[in-house]
Amino acid sequence: EPNSYLVVEGLVIPGRDSTKITLSRSRNLSDTASFISENTAIVRIVSKLGQSYQLTPKGEGLYIGLLNLTDGQQYQLKINTSDGSQYESDFESAVITPPIDSLTWKQENDVSIFVNTRDPQNKTRFYRWEYIETWEYHSYYESNIGYKNGNLYFLDSTEKKYACWDSVYSNKVIVGASEQLSEDVITNLPVTTIPVGSDKISVRYSILVKQFGLSRDAYNF
Fold first, then answer.
1. Rounded Cα distance, 76 and 92, in Å
2. How far apart are CA 214 and CA 91, in angstroms?
């Protein structure tokens, strides 16, 4: 159908990392465009006390700002689009996320990766994680012959190209809660599992995990 609903994706982060909100438009399955960005909106974070922080458009529907929000104070997301429409989220309390304690791993055939964290002030209780994996792997065959100026020649050791790299972002919702515990501690929560024999762990592997504190409503959602 000829619809064009606004799609809002992102996280409002109190500090240390940038808040990133991406705006796009819905599309039909028959559309040839893979992504329809909303580039001319005004995107703000507004507190219940009236403070306003406007995010900067960066193109491709991305709006960014480094915010210094107050822990526990309530904020909402406000969006004004060029067609005169206005959108508002509910107010949510800002949550200052404690740092990750550690990432650990264990191999019993497959390789499992775990996250550990705690909030000494017992204030966070609800968490979400996302990650990006990066790994090196080698092509099955090495290239020994090059082509230059119309001629074939044998590559020396400095020219051989067989090492490859790849990266992938997490595509699942990873959450955890310590609400039922006397202390705000998360221990050995599974982040991801790498199957034995995977290219990811054939040469070198790295994982970068980000942790976000959530409100109870956001966790339940």
1. 6
2. 13
Average pLDDT of the residues of the chain = 93
Phi/psi for 195 (5° steps) reads -60, 145
> Would you list the DSSP string of 51-107?
-EEEPEEEETTEEEE---PPTT-EEEEEEE-TTS-EEEPPPEE--PPPPEEEEEEEE
CA distance 65 to 51: 15
Threshold 0.70, pTM exceeds: yes
Residue 181, by phi and psi: left (phi above 0), alpha (psi -120 to 50) or beta? beta
Residue 128: DSSP 8-state: E
Q: d(Cα 55, Cα 50) in Å, to the nearest integer?
A: 16
CA geometry: angle at 208 spanning 170 and 196, to 5°? 65
- pLDDT band for 129, please (50, 70, 90 cuts): very high
User: Structure tokens of 86?
Assistant: 């206005």
Alpha-carbon distance of 191 to 200, in angstroms, equals: 15
Q: Give the sign of the dihedral formed by CA 97, CA 100, CA 106, CA 109.
A: positive
Distance CA 118, CA 99 (A): 8
- Average pLDDT in the 3-16 region? 89
